[in-house]
């Protein structure tokens, strides 16, 4: 959150107060920041090829200050900045700096893992043509107010970050493959599976690291045929329940209800259904997690029939 706020303040200070564009359905508070503390924004929730065409049409007559995505070609052509939030993909899985002017991420999530300390990071691309402007501006704004014990805790937690992400990648892909196959069965209650291996794979592969143990991350989102089946699945999923993600333990939450409780109708327009269940896969044994998911699916399917 601090990284999102700081990057936006940096851009407002470094450039005239132009509107922004948010490409893809972002972290909820990103839109709040763009709307409340700036001159406004264009929102392209689907992040699709068609919306790229719409954005390009807008750029023919309007200037954009910052685009929260990896659309490097348009940025170079129309002279706007790109900020990418890499929190969900993580530095262990993707390399987006070549496509961005700034990369931001929450260190409170996967990087820490233990959910006992908060922090964020902001990285300037030294090859960006805006770097000579952004770096001195950032230096003039920067305050070193990170509490020393928080720094020590974050560093200690992060020592096994790469190995933890390798485990999470493997387990999440194991579960996602099962859910993807199950979604095609005649009795399925699953409506949609949102996971990079099966959604927008071509885009993900562009930034996916080719070396090491990179994968598709640990976040899986599911929608269901009815609210009753969604409720049955969630209530019978035997993992910790909570709003965060990236913890060492698996967390599930009714995402739309929790995050967009007063804006559910608005969120549903963009495909975030009230019955969506988000699972942040942790470090538990993958067979245990599979057992939990199967029990939850059986309960949901029993509700449907």
UniProtKB/TrEMBL annotation:
Alphabetical list of Gene3D superfamilies matching this protein: Aspartate Aminotransferase, domain 1, Type I PLP-dependent aspartate aminotransferase-like (Major domain)
Where would one find the signal peptide in this protein? 1-21
Q: Does the keyword Chaperone belong to this entry?
A: no
* InterPro entries for this protein: Cys/Met-Metab_PyrdxlP-dep_enz, PyrdxlP-dep_Trfase, PyrdxlP-dep_Trfase_major, PyrdxlP-dep_Trfase_small, Trans-sulfuration_enzymes
**Keyword Disulfide bond on this protein?**
no
A biological process term (GO) from this entry: transsulfuration
User: Which coenzyme or cofactor does it need?
Assistant: pyridoxal 5'-phosphate
Write one Pfam family the protein is assigned to. Answer: Cys_Met_Meta_PP
List UniProt keywords, sorted A-Z: Pyridoxal phosphate, Signal
Q: In Gene Ontology terms, what is one molecular function of this protein?
A: cystathionine gamma-synthase activity
PANTHER family with a match to the protein in the record:
CYSTATHIONINE GAMMA-SYNTHASE-RELATED, PTHR42699
The family this protein is said to belong to: Belongs to the trans-sulfuration enzymes family.
Could you identify this protein by its name?
Cystathionine gamma-synthase
